[in-house]
Write a structure and sequence with these properties.
mainly alpha
Length: about 210
């Protein structure tokens, strides 16, 4: 089973802040680690969660509702089936089970649920009220891998290919090319600080991957 010291520490601190009892805290910690250790996962593992929590720590001073951020980070990919189109909805539903068992505040529960669903499109409707900075940071953290150094990106791309091993090389190339072309059309990051840090390298990384399919 995968393990993460960063996850364990931040999870424990968050559960204490939310006054979750130790037995329930341990129960859900085990569920999280078990889910993220499933054999169909190669990128969407506890290491992905850990990477985002590292960014959470680095940019903590910019965040307002830290408990909500941690919950969204931990639960956003807790259900992951590469052949499913409802992973985000299913992850949000499992979070609901956690929220009900722990008696989370209704506002917190609804906020985290919406943030998990937002990872499906990685878009924010600026005409709505769902434009808070915390959500923008959360979505940027989730896509930060695209703007990491080329070696780290290459490893990520290889892991994604393994998760979609049920596709032929040709079908995967066609599908992945469409995703990359979509991302290349616009800026990927909502926050100025993460856009400045990751956007240019992300474009280079994705262009190189796209070129590798030719």
């Amino acid at each position: 089973m995968a393990d993460s010291t960063r996850f364990e520490l931040i999870w424990k601190n968050t559960m204490q802040a939310l006054k979750v009892t130790p037995d329930v805290q341990l129960k859900w910690s085990n569920i999280v680690l078990e889910k993220y250790s499933e054999t169909q996962r190669h990128y969407h593992t506890i290491c992905h969660v850990d990477h985002i929590l590292d960014l959470f720590n680095k940019y903590c001073e910019h965040l307002t509702d830290k408990n909500a951020l941690v919950l969204a980070i931990v639960f956003h990919d807790i259900i992951y089936n590469p052949q499913s189109g409802s992973n985000e909805e299913d992850s949000a539903e499992l979070f609901q089970s956690f929220a009900e068992e722990t008696g989370l505040d209704l506002h917190l529960k609804e906020k985290v649920y919406k943030w998990i669903i937002a990872t499906k499109s990685h878009q924010i409707n600026d005409s709505s009220k769902e434009t808070d900075a915390d959500l923008k940071y959360f979505l940027d953290f989730d896509l930060a891998i695209l703007g990491e150094d080329p070696a780290m990106y290459k490893q990520y791309a290889a892991q994604i290919r393994k998760e979609y091993s049920h596709f032929s090389d040709e079908d995967y190339k066609n599908g992945r090319s469409k995703v990359l072309a979509h991302f290349l059309k616009s800026d990927l990051y909502f926050t100025q600080i993460l856009r400045a840090k990751f956007n240019d390298q992300a474009k280079i990384n994705m262009k190189n991957e796209l070129d590798s399919f030719k």
